[in-house]
Structures are given as structure tokens and as C-alpha cells.
Amino acid sequence: MKRFYDEVVDVVKAGLRALRIETPSWAFGNSGTRFKVFAQKGVPRDPYEKIADAAQVHRFTGAAPTVALHIPWDRVDSYGDLSHHAREHGVAIGAINSNVFQDDDYMLGSVTNPDPAVRRKALRHLLECVDIMDATGSDVLKLWFSDGTNYPGQDDIRDRQDRLAEALDAVYARLGEGQRLVLEYKLFEPAFYVTDVPDWGTAYAHCLRLGRKAQVVVDTGHHAPGTNIEFIVAFLLREGKLGGFDFNSRFYADDDLMVGAADPFQLFRIMYEVIRADGLDQDVAFMLDQCHNIEPKIPGQIRSVMNVQEATAKALLVDREALAAAQRAGDVLGANGVFMDAYNTDVRPLLAGFREESGLAPNPMAAYAASGYAERIVAERVGGHQAGWGA
Predict the structure, then answer these.
(1) How far is residue 66's CA from residue 52's CA, in Å, rounded to a whole number?
(2) What's the angle, vertex CA 22, arms to CA 58 and CA 91, rounded to 5?
(3) Are 357 and 320 in contact (CB under 8 A)?
(4) Which of 363, 260, 262 has the alpha carbon at shortest distance from 312?
(5) From CA 217, how far away is CA 287, in angstroms rounded?
(6) Is the pTM of this model over 0.85?
(7) 360-377 pLDDT, tens digit each
């Protein structure tokens, strides 16, 4: 029995060592609701300070070695210098996120806008992001479009899909070897009537047409209530088209709460499908995409990483041989019981031991609180313009 337990623990630890969770630079800036952005003391004032804060998440979790950038929020004079700064802090630049939703010209859309001049402007920005990939060594370009319409008849739905395809073709042609684009979708918001990339099927169809360097990114908060996200994950993994995740959660309509906050069981089910398809060993980009509106920024990211680690550890505990046997036998309750046994296991002691073996503090939250970093940045970051959502 002990030998079996040791073997299971070894499998869990191997999976945890393979798990890498990217943090987003924008999560360390000020954010808020649609009515108010809440400023906090010690918030970064530039991309360099964002990276320094992101490095703290990796320092205490050991699982967040890369930082995603958002352009133009993270625009700097020298991306080579920014990459060097990241390496000095023990992390690296990850995905480059484009922004074609915060310019007045994009009121009627960016790459799907009926005005060719606006479409050209949006495309120039997307190609600039590929240039930044070259300069930073990033291999992932993440695209999300707020494009859509508010009223029936406002624009031609099919024409907008043609314009989207034309822009994606141009970006895809610019990608270098080893680079890829991941296309995000969102059911609604800010468009009220038609969103041009509203679901995984639309994103999948565009990526399938483009080729192997185009994949779908699943934002866990971007679905209708009751959507079976793990089915989407399983399907895309089976097709080799799951490029990555934006991990967050939501209770009602919007997203960007901490991953696992609304439905930790859903996160467990998603991670099981990833493990079932050996997704931890594939080129799937796991990234947090959250806005910490009322909680401290760095601890919020640390807690999110811990939530993903816990869900992953539980998913790795699923006895897949017993599960397969129950499934073959048509044992509905037995199969569900195997699942629930894994989910109901308290993996926190296992994770604490794993961290200690990795040279980390067993409790990342407590270790960060005791480090004095939060107090130091409050004292040092006085003056200047704080970074924030849209800054």
C-alpha cells in the first residue's frame, strides 16, 4: 500500500514540476469596476516594476517563470533591455497581447471595421506585436478582438468575418518559425448584438483554416452559464488546437475573478482533461488573466497559482485505471466515485512537502507576507504615474 501511495505521489510531483503558469503584467496595476478604478499603494509605475512584482510570484511559488506583456500598456524603448531585466529577476517574457480595443478609431471595430483605414491601422499594431515577439524571444501572440455590432443591420455579419480572416492571414504570414498565434473568444461584451469571435467554434474554424501555427485560447470566464468547458478543452486537445488558457472565473456574466473562486470543481475537471491528453507535456500556455480590484495584487496572483496547483494535484490523483475499468463496465456510480475521491482529497500537505523539496517555503502566502516586499515597494514607489488597466 505504501509503495502504491509513493508511486502516486511521485506522479503528482512530476506533474507539478511540469506545470508552468504565466502571470499577466496588467494584473499588477490598478484596476476596478466600470465605475471606479481603485488605486493601491506600491503599485508599479512602469513595465520594469511590473516584472519585478511578477518575479515575486515565481519566487514564492516556483511555478510562474514567465510574464505576459500587453501592448501598448507595456511599451518601452528597448524590449531587449526589458527582456534582460526580466532574466535578472529570474523570469522571462511570455506571450505578447495585442490591444485593438482602446482607441477611438475602434468604436465600430478594429480588423472588422467597415473603414479600410481603421483596419489597416489595427493590422499595423498586430504586426508590431510580432516585431516585439522577435525582440523579446516570445513565441506566443495572443489575439482578442472586442469587434462586434450592437444592432441588427448595423453591418454585414459575413463581410466582417471576411475582414477578420484577411487580417488573420496577414498576421499568420508574418509569424516566424517557432512562433504561433492563439485566438481568444468571448460570448459577449462589449458588443451587444453580434460578437465577431463569440465562441470556440468560430475561433477553431479560423485557426483550422490558418494552419498549425494558429490555435484557440480558452478563457474560462468567457462562456454562457452552464457551458461544459471541459468538453471544449477535451475536443481542442484531441484536435491539437488548444493553444492555451486564460485562467479566471466569474459568478454571473463578466469574468476576471481569481481562478477557482467561483467553481473549484470545474477547474479540477478542466485540469483532468488536460492531464488525460498529456497536456502538461504539450505546448499549452497556461496563463492567469485576472483583475485584482479589491485584493492586493501580488498575493492575489500567488493565491491564483496555488489554486491551479491544487486543482492539478487533485486531477493527477485520479486513478485512471480504476476509472477506465468502471467506464468499460458501465458502472456509473463507480466511475463518478473515482472522480470524487480524487477531488475530495486534501492535497495541501502534499503541496507543502513538494514546495519544501523544491527549496520553497511550504506556504507561499505566508512567506510573501513575511518577506517585507510589500512594505518596501510602498515606501519606494512614491510619485510617478501608477500603472493601471488602460495605462
Answers:
(1) 12
(2) 45
(3) no
(4) 260
(5) 10
(6) yes
(7) 999 999 999 999 999 999
Burial of 75 (0-12, 13-18, 19+ CB in 10 A): middle
Report which of 218, 219, 130 is spatially closest to residue 167, judged by C-alpha positions.
130
Vertex 267: Cα angle to 307 and 216 (nearest 5): 115
Number of C-beta neighbours around residue 266 at 10 A: 18
Please state the φ and ψ torsions of residue 180, each to the nearest 5 degrees.
-150, 160
Burial class of residue 76 in the structure, from the number of CB atoms within 10 Å of its CB (0-12 exposed, 13-18 middle, 19+ buried): middle
What pLDDT does 1 receive? 40
Contact 115, 108 (CB under 8 A): yes
On whether the CB atoms of residues 66 and 93 are closer than 8 A, the answer is yes
Distance CA 224, CA 230 (A): 14
Provide φ and ψ at 307, rounded to 5°. Answer: -65, -40
d(CA 97, CA 100) in angstroms, rounded, equals 10
C-alpha dist (Å) from residue 235 to 39, 232, 242, 270? 41, 5, 9, 12
Residue whose entry in the numeric block shows the C-alpha cell 490591444: 99
Q: E strand or H helix at 32, and its extent? A: strand 31-32
Long-range contacts, stretch 50-55, CB < 8 angstroms, 24+ apart: 50/25, 50/26, 50/74, 50/387, 51/25, 51/82, 51/85, 51/86, 51/89, 51/91, 52/89, 53/28, 53/297, 53/298, 53/377, 54/23, 54/25, 54/28, 54/91, 54/301, 55/86, 55/89, 55/90, 55/91
Prior bond of 72 cis (ω within 30°): yes
pLDDT digit string, tens, across residues 142-169:
999 999 999 999 999 999 999 999 999 9
